Amino acid sequence: MDSKGERLLAAATAPVAAPLPQALRGRWRLSFDPQRLRLREEAMEILEKAEVGSFSPSGCLEEYQARPEIFRSFALRQDLHCLVEASPGFLEVYEQLLLTVLLPWLKELKSATQKRAQFWYQYPPTLRVQPGRSREFKRPHRDAEYGHQIGELNCWMPLTDYNLTQTTLWVESEPDRGDYEPLDISYGQIGIFHGTLCRHHVPQNSSDFTRVSMDFRIGLGEYFDPSWQLDGVKHVHGRREIWL
């Protein structure tokens, strides 16, 4: 059965943008130096202030004792979003990741001959917490349901150790293929994919450890329409424009 977002999308006008080339609709893995870009530590500072759980005596992020409803509750996720938005240290490292790792790589991928490239990146990014031994999951979906455009790429990165949580995002290789495969990545790596059309989901976390991840989207220049919005969606991500 179609979701509300799919029904809204069927009735909406399309963004005014050039079609995204097939070469930019793939799936990639990118690495960064977690000792230089300390997103995990910055996220721990946010969770220390958040009323979504508490740290165990070990102080380990994977042993963060999250409230069971955090993965599903819109109110709790909004509280966490507000804390992320008010965390200059976290946001500074996030933008360093974009400026020194992701966007230069995307510029090269988009066009090796282009002198300048325009991007629109989500600001702030989304921080997600999935408690261990939980039945909560995220159903298969494509981000077009939530008002995202074909000219955007998804970036997903774990902040916890995949060897411990054994829980990750599953993504299909092409739209409607249904051949879901796990993003087999850990902290220090970023999974990049075309999540607007390729469905993805998160299964239950059956481990004893909490999974924490960060995700965001990047609009690619002429393939993205910053003035377009899907009428009827509850939440629209903020974004910033940059030229490289």
From TrEMBL:
Keywords: Dioxygenase, Oxidoreductase. GO terms for molecular function: dioxygenase activity. It comes from the Eukaryota. This is Fe2OG dioxygenase domain-containing protein. It comes from Cladocopium goreaui.
